[in-house]
Recover the amino acids of this structure.
């Protein structure tokens, strides 16, 4: 039986990441960095795709104001979608583009889809994440319970913000996936898969380092982004979006 190991969500991509993924037996990476526009993501994904590793572009869209922030992972986008729009506006746009939508890190912190969103948008979700290195064990258990309760296909990812985390978690599909279209079909059809991860103290250490990286993401990097770097490239008022999202932007 042909199988394909997919890491459905990484934040970093360079030659070291690509080589590490290959050495860990990963066949497909989904590259979805924060605050990077879709054309740049596509270009970088293509640059690191080869006969051994397929890199698929995606966007983790930040929806809602900071008090009600929800992250949604979208693959198969045909047009750019900005951050900082309403959750309803994001799902309407994903639906218009016939994108494949996943729920990353359910109920994690205050930035994730939970039961109310699963109830409302479950028919538009192609899967929910049940294992994420930034989660503590009880959070992974809660995510699995939620995903199973709503009958969504599961997935697990490295959610790698650090190079060392690449290849720690993956989703093995029981089919050959050789293109972006193949991956989207596998996700949308609920193709048989297994969520797997490495084990042992090294894996636990890398998971906890990813958890600690969250503090860095939410302190220095956020301060730099909000106060020092000006308008984010994915802000809906950016000229690249031509004012198309004025009616659903929250900032």
């Amino acid at each position: 039986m042909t199988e394909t190991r997919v890491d459905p969500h990484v934040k970093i991509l360079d030659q070291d990441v690509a080589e590490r993924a290959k050495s860990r037996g990963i066949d497909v990476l989904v590259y979805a960095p924060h605050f990077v526009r879709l054309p740049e993501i596509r270009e970088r994904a293509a640059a690191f795709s080869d006969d051994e590793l397929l890199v698929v572009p995606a966007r983790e869209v930040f929806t809602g104001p900071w008090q009600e922030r929800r992250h949604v992972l979208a693959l198969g986008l045909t047009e750019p979608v900005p951050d900082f729009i309403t959750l309803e506006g994001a799902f309407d746009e994903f639906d218009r583009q016939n994108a494949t939508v996943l729920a990353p890190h359910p109920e994690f912190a205050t930035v994730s889809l939970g039961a109310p969103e699963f109830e409302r948008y479950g028919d538009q979700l192609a899967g929910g994440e049940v294992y994420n290195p930034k989660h503590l064990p009880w959070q992974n258990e809660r995510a699995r319970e939620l995903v199973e309760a709503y009958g969504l296909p599961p997935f697990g990812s490295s959610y790698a913000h650090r190079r060392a985390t690449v290849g720690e978690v993956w989703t093995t599909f029981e089919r050959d996936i050789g293109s972006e279209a193949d991956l989207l079909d596998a996700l949308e059809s609920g193709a048989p898969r297994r969520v797997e991860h490495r084990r042992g103290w090294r894996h636990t250490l890398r998971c906890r380092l990813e958890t600690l990286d969250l503090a860095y993401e939410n302190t220095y990097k956020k301060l730099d982004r909000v106060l020092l770097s000006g308008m984010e490239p994915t802000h809906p008022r950016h000229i690249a979006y031509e004012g198309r999202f004025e009616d659903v932007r929250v900032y």
Summary: The first helix runs from residue 15 to 23. The first strand starts at residue 4 and ends at 10.
